[in-house]
Specification:
The protein is mainly α. Helix content is 74%, strand content 0%. The protein has a single domain, classed as Ribonuclease iii, N-terminal Endonuclease Domain, Chain A. It is globular.
């Protein structure tokens, strides 16, 4: 996936990540939209994503190749970020999203499921 930019991978990964979170919450029988949105924010916010990424790094859950994807995305030259988070947190979240996007394009669906299970059930 070296020929696809980090932000494009993150763009794709964000949508894949969110589908997993939404499915997980609905399977937990959270059915009211307001409740779904409130719960989803814990997982899909930049702060939440950065926290889950750090946990995976601290526990050596990611492979060396996966870490390289995260680092490449995290180090992408970007000065824009949402107003509700700092640039470092945003870049870490972008790294996790890029990893998910890269795995998806490589058709590594089982690995995405492992990562998302680690995040959602861990």
């Amino acid at each position: 996936m070296n020929n696809i930019g980090s932000l494009a991978l993150a763009y794709l990964g964000d949508s894949i990540y969110e589908v997993y979170v939404r499915k997980y919450l609905i399977n937990k029988k959270i059915l009211k939209v307001n409740d779904l949105q409130k719960e989803a924010t814990k997982y899909v916010s930049a702060r939440g994503q950065a926290s889950y990424l750090q946990k995976m790094l601290d526990n050596n859950f990611l492979t060396e190749d996966e870490i390289n994807i995260v680092i490449r995305a995290r180090n992408h030259k970007s000065h824009a970020h949402p107003k509700n988070t700092d640039i470092i947190t945003y870049k870490h979240a972008t790294g996790l999203e890029a990893l998910i996007g890269s795995l998806y394009l490589d058709n590594k669906i089982d690995r995405i499921a492992e990562i998302m299970n680690y995040i959602l059930e861990g």
